[in-house]
Amino acid sequence: MQKGILTVLSGFSGAGKGTAMKRLMEKYEDYALSISATTRKPREGEVDGREYFFKETEEFEKMIAQDELIEYARYVNHYYGTPRSYVEEQLEKGKDVILEIEIQGALKVKEKFPDTLLVFVTPPSAEELRRRLIGRGTETMEVIEERLARAKEEARGIDCYDCLIINDDLETCVDELHAVIQNEKKKVMRNAEFIAKIREELEEL
Amino acid sequence: MQKGILTVLSGFSGAGKGTAMKRLMEKYEDYALSISATTRKPREGEVDGREYFFKETEEFEKMIAQDELIEYARYVNHYYGTPRSYVEEQLEKGKDVILEIEIQGALKVKEKFPDTLLVFVTPPSAEELRRRLIGRGTETMEVIEERLARAKEEARGIDCYDCLIINDDLETCVDELHAVIQNEKKKVMRNAEFIAKIREELEEL
């Protein structure tokens, strides 16, 4: 059996990553969602162990010290990180795992797991990004301006990614995301076992 | 508009490349089939300008001299090659072009056009390959043995390819081929124009 594909999904805040991932999980059975650990406080409706594992700073720093995280980063005064053991178990079982993390974290994951697929999700235009951030209605204008400033920075990092998906229509975006991930399984480097087998069989014919 | 994707399709003789390509063209509208030039004689049912451009050796060598071929090779005493102008026109128009050529040719094309997608098609096993070659009923056992010997050699070259597609069921194989080609369009390196545009827009917000 082929191992699962590890995908890192990044994209501007407001690109619709969260919604796309949720829909992907509903629509296709191939995936295991990795749940991040964070020290930020839960937003309304967020449940510990579902959206995030909510941790105290001290607990989180203990996880870092014990190398229990694939990657972690500090962002707006909070830690965010990916617990390692769950991800490795799921990949071994052939499940595809998606991590929603930003660029620094993405590059750290790629370093540790070189066959990670890095996918960047973007709205069709900067104007549309602003419209979505305002439309959400959950953030102050100050936070929105901060996010747009951050988007400018993030846009410089797109070249580090493998694939770019434009989130114009949600269902299309989800299907495209599914397709790029499933297509990874056709890569020659991910089929070493099959190739070795058919070579051997040909020698024995 | 994005340029079309140039794909080279290779695989063991008997893997079903020809049938798969024919079905792909029927099923999807994205493709332009490149027609090769060859000096081998037409098989029954083959039409000049449809399966191949059938050429005399002298004509073919003139095409080589005038650099009118993307690649060419000699195989079992005959020349096979890919006329350049048609391929370039189709890619510019946004059509995806597939070349069915063997490994040496594939590598030459990749050298000239570095963003060529190299796809290798294989039957699910060596035994199945032999069964298909015999089942065809168009070749002598001597030719079949030659093809199997050649398959052994070709198997050593699979690592040069990007993607591997196992042709077990024709329709599945065709859909997978379509998916790997269309997915190429999501590659970051093929979206430089869009990325430059959204960066600029973000700066201007």
Automatic annotation (TrEMBL), chains A, B:
Cellular localization per UniProt: Cytoplasm
Binding site for ATP: 11-18
EC number: 2.7.4.8
One function term, GO molecular function aspect: ATP binding
Keywords of this entry: ATP-binding, Cytoplasm, Kinase, Nucleotide-binding, Transferase
Catalytic activity: GMP + ATP = GDP + ADP
Domain Guanylate kinase-like: 4-182
Main location: cytoplasm
GO cellular component: a single term: cytosol
Keyword RNA-binding: no
Family statement: Belongs to the guanylate kinase family.
Alphabetical list of NCBIfam families matching this protein: guanyl_kin
Known role: Essential for recycling GMP and indirectly, cGMP.
Record's protein name: Guanylate kinase
Protein source organism: Sellimonas catena
Organismal lineage: Bacteria, Bacillati, Bacillota, Clostridia, Lachnospirales
Gene (UniProt): gmk
